[in-house]
Amino acid sequence: MYIGHWAAAFAAGAASPKAPKLGTLFVAAQLVDWGFFTFAAIGVEAMRVEPGATVMNPMDLYHMPYTHSLIGCGIWALAFAAIILATQRNITGAWIAGLVVLSHWFTDLLVHRPDLTFAGGDAKVGLGLWNYPYVAIPLELGLTIGAFAWYVRQTRGPLMPPMILMGLLLVMQAINWFGPEPEEAGLALYLTALVSYAVATFFAYWVGTTRRHKRLRG
Ligand SMILES: [Zn+2]
Prior knowledge:
Helices cover 62% and strands 8% of the residues. By secondary structure, it is mainly α. The protein has one domain. It has a two-stranded antiparallel sheet. A two-stranded antiparallel ribbon has the order 3-4. The longest helix is centred in the C-terminal third of the chain and has 24 residues, at 187-210. Zinc ion is lined by residues 32-33, 68, 104, 108. Residues 32-33, 68, 104, 108 line the site of zinc ion.
């Protein structure tokens, strides 16, 4: 999943006026990928490019026990929730942010081939929808656009900022799906991923400053 992870951020922002701002939720939804590409850059976790690994994605993600095991992801979720609690004194918002972090593993579970673990061991899971573009593409677009529409309906503010954000996400996803495949794993690939997350998060932060939940007074 790529932009599909941000469906959880939009849904959280729609579901509760106590949810953290959209930019924070965007970081939460991709937190373990921020971790993975950073760890890959410094050699703590690892991947390689293997053309045909799955039909839609050439990445062989063979070592990511700290970010993409269920337990590892849970620890990132708890840590992120603790930061929200400490900085915003918002216990509901902390729970929501933690759940958004955790959602990453479950959305990856749908599309990854078996490369995810429960606790970093040998047993690997993944339903492999990346081998079925006719399922994976509508699923990712449907989740993202559906959650986005819900977020826009549950919040008020000018329409242009969220439309710009959604346009940007669709362009990023199109490049990811239909652009040239990476030839090798390395710093350039990891930095490209991290920069793309940063750009999307920057725009989401901006959108969050322009909208208020309809259940908030004033
Ligand atoms: Zn991931």
